[in-house]
């Protein structure tokens, strides 16, 4: 079974392994959505039985319906859900949240991220969407807000701004598909954790799974070199769920 940990100071608890539903995901599909409604929902349920209670989805992955189906089977209150929006105006973001709630068959979203930010001045440019999400958080519709970044300047800004509760950060030992090399990204993660932000890592085995020849090395690097709270990994079959659950559990158990 995978352990759970406090996600910074968000008040949320998450499993150390997060089930990612966006492998090669964009424009409404991913490797996980390709499993079909029943296939992915059953795999999510299988992972949940092993303690994977943190699930990551996004509008761009086309997996909201799959997650919704799995939630009806395991119970909404048994899972922490992240979803993401690529919209860039206040009105569009508010409309997205309304739609996401409907698609996920829920009346609240645990974590809502501004997806794929690429500009260092995003906290100024995105003030409208941020205000909307802050209001929805105050209303209890969203429990935590944050962002995922695809640019080092944007990542630095996400570490500095008080607005972000949660950061999704690209991190691996090879610097593959990262915002910058690990020697630059690790200090930004440290800033986030010190500030009480929840931080979970993506691209742990590389952007295209390029580090999967030795996934244990990749997972241990992230666990040993950062204080990241969880690792999101895309999985498409039970064997991968079992392998990653075991590797993350082993890596975490060796930490002081």
The radius of gyration is: 17 Å
How far the N terminus sits from the C terminus, by CA atoms, comes to: 19 Å
Global mean pLDDT: 96
Q: Please tell me the total number of domains.
A: 1
Which blocks of ≥5 consecutive residues have pLDDT under 50? none
Question: How many E-type strands?
Answer: 10
List the helices and strands and how they pair.
Layout lengths: L3 E3 L6 E3 L1 E4 L15 H14 L4 E3 L7 H11 L5 E6 L4 H15 L4 E9 L4 H4 L1 H13 L2 E8 L2 H9 L5 E5 L11 H13 L3 E5 L12 H11 L4 E5 L3 H16 L3
Parallel strand pairs: 3-4, 3-10, 4-5, 5-6, 6-7, 7-8, 8-9, 9-10
Antiparallel strand pairs: 1-2
Helix pairs in contact: 1-2, 3-5, 6-7, 8-9
How would you characterize the overall build of this protein?
The chain has 256 residues and is an alpha/beta fold. It has a single domain (4-250), classed as NADP-dependent oxidoreductase domain (TIM Barrel, Alpha-Beta Barrel), CATH 3.20.20.100. Helix content is 41%, strand content 20%. The protein has an eight-stranded parallel beta barrel with strand order 3-4-5-6-7-8-9-10, surrounded by five helices. Helix 6 (152-160) runs parallel beside helix 7 (182-194) and helix 8 packs parallel to helix 9.
């Amino acid at each position: 079974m995978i352990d759970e940990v406090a996600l910074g100071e968000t008040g949320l608890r998450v499993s150390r392994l997060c089930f990612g539903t966006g492998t090669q995901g964009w424009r409404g599909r991913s490797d996980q959505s390709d499993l079909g409604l029943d296939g992915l929902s059953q795999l999510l349920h299988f992972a949940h039985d092993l303690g994977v209670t943190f699930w990551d989805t996004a509008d761009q992955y086309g997996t909201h319906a799959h997650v919704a189906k799995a939630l009806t089977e395991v119970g909404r209150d048994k899972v922490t859900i992240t979803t993401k929006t690529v919209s860039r105006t206040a009105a569009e973001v508010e409309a997205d949240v309304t739609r996401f709630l409907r698609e996920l068959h829920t009346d609240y979203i645990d974590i809502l991220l501004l997806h794929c930010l690429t500009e260092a001045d995003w906290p100024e440019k995105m003030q409208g969407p941020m205000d909307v999400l802050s209001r929805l958080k105050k209303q209890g519709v969203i429990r935590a807000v944050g962002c995922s970044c695809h640019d080092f300047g944007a990542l630095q800004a996400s570490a500095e701004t008080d607005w972000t509760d949660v950061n999704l950060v690209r991190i691996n030992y090879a610097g593959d598909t990262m915002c910058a090399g690990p020697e630059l990204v690790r200090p930004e993660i440290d800033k986030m954790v010190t500030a009480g932000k929840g931080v979970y890592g993506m691209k742990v085995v590389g952007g295209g799974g390029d580090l999967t020849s030795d996934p244990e090395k990749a997972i241990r690097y992230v666990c040993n070199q950062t204080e990241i709270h969880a690792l999101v990994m895309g999985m498409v079959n039970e064997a991968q769920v079992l392998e990653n659950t075991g590797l993350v559990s082993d890596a975490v158990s060796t930490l002081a």
